[in-house]
Amino acid sequence: MARSLFFGGKGGVGKTSCATAYALNCAAAGQKTLLVSTDPAHNLADLFGRAPGATPTRMRPDLDVVELDPDRETQRYLDQVKDTIRPLVSGERSTTVFRQLELARHAPGTEEAALFDALVGLLLETGRDYDRLIFDTAPGGHTVRLLALPEIMGAWVDGLMQRRRKVRSDYKAWLGDGEVVDDPIQEALMRRRGRLAAAREHLTCAAYSAVVLVANPERLPTLETARTRELLESHGLHVGALVINKCLPEDVDSTWLINWRDEQRPWREQLAATFADRPVREIGHQPHAPASSDDLQPLSDALQGLTPWQDHD
Ligand SMILES: Nc1ncnc2c1ncn2[C@@H]1O[C@H](COP(=O)(O)OP(=O)(O)O)[C@@H](O)[C@H]1O
Ligand SMILES: [Mg+2]
């Protein structure tokens, strides 16, 4: 089973850059690595010189990249739901049911559920072919919501299953013959419950799954980072390391830059204090925004040897 790592943090702090730099390190060390982007605003295509596809694309030796496009994943998810439902509803009712499903496309939570479904597939199936799964997640709260989903969706599926069982036992009582017919909905729910439980087990096992939070030494990212760590931990996830990105170098010369560097200092200290019990890596602000994987070398160097998972025997 692959060890998975999620790079989380506010938009623009450097998640995509750090996740890519880290994935390049893993691949260079001979670990078969899959870099997964769930961020619609990513710039992986620029970094690798060509766009990743919907299935893993080989970009470097030992490094594949895959992009989860929210719209495409939502479509795939709804198609799958339709296929499950099709044999169960007929005639006029099916038109209504399928129209409801089309409306569900834009309902809150559908896109997340679809992305999560794809993530579960990556963790449980695709991940078997890799040593490392590196996730470049969508900004901020999304990471928490996405990773907490197995817990929430598990409870939801449990509720559905309970209601289904009640309906079936009522039927049994009405029919009075004691025979229980096969229930395809119950079976589909059970399968889903099993996958969610397996995903949740993987995500909450600190030896196999960890989150690296990326922050910049500024007020808001600092405050949010502490909150995000607490929230992730309250859902049983292992927050394994902190990256403080875009730190200005000591030897800046203009007054303007000296002021900026000095303003960063208390936030660097506060961030490091919040992660006193974890590895913390600082990455310097580069003179140019990294535009290619070569430009990421300083970031890769800063992340060298970082292991955010808990030791396992
Ligand atoms: N250490 C750094 N120095 C300078 N620019 C950086 C650094 N890290 C990231 N950037 C730039 O900052 C912007 C946001 O980075 P990105 O990795 O896309 O963040 P996120 O994925 O968190 O939104 C990009 O233009 C990126 O090239
Ligand atoms: Mg990004």
Describe the structure.
The chain is α/β, with parallel strands linked by helices. The chain has helices at 15-28, 44-48, 70-85, 91-104, 110-124, 141-175, 184-203, 219-234, 255-274, 297-303, and strands spanning 3-8, 33-37, 57-60, 63-67, 132-136, 209-215, 239-247, 280-284. An eight-stranded mixed β-sheet has the order 3-4-2-5-1-6-7-8, with helices on both faces. β7, α9 (255-274) and β8 (280-284) form a beta-alpha-beta unit. The model has no long low-confidence stretch (mean pLDDT 86). Magnesium ion binds at residues 15-16, 39, 42, 136. Residues 282-313 are annotated as: Disordered.
For the structure shown, list the relevant keywords.
313 residues, alpha/beta, Rossmann fold, eight-stranded mixed sheet, 10 helices, 52% helix, 15% strand, binds adenosine-5'-diphosphate, binds magnesium ion, ATPase_ArsA/GET3
Helix and strand arrangement:
Elements lengths: L2 E6 L6 H14 L4 E5 L6 H5 L8 E4 L2 E5 L2 H16 L5 H14 L5 H15 L7 E5 L4 H35 L8 H20 L5 E7 L3 H16 L4 E9 L7 H20 L5 E5 L12 H7 L10
Parallel strand pairs: 1-5, 1-6, 2-4, 2-5, 6-7, 7-8
Antiparallel strand pairs: 3-4
This protein binds adenosine-5'-diphosphate and magnesium ion.
Adenosine-5'-diphosphate binds next to helix 1 and strand 7.
